[in-house]
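Here's a chain:
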Amino acid sequence: METNVQLQGELQAQIMSALWKIDHGTVEQVRSALPPRYRSAYTTVQTVLNRLATRGMLVRKKAGNAIVYKPAFSEAEYISRAVEQALATASVEARSAVLAQLIGDLSDDSVEALRQRADAIAAERAKRDK
């Protein structure tokens, strides 16, 4: 399922960040994991969680009388999808410039770690394509 991963507002971003940290939680657990300035009313957090679930960003499961929310994808997958969506309509030159800038800003150790991760992804892709 292709999901629009663009977060709509700071509270959605804070809720997703909290869930990535705690892995899953009820409305109250998510609300408690939010930074104090974002601890809205219970019903506000519940509404945002339900909207995120409707958009495919969260999975809901019933656990007794409560509903437990869990991110549908990791933070890294979210960032990857967001970057892909942002670059989708950009020209080849703009995409290349953005990626080169991001990589160029990395430390040598980070570039090496990125190279190793890219090699591992390529190896996985080669296995799948056989």
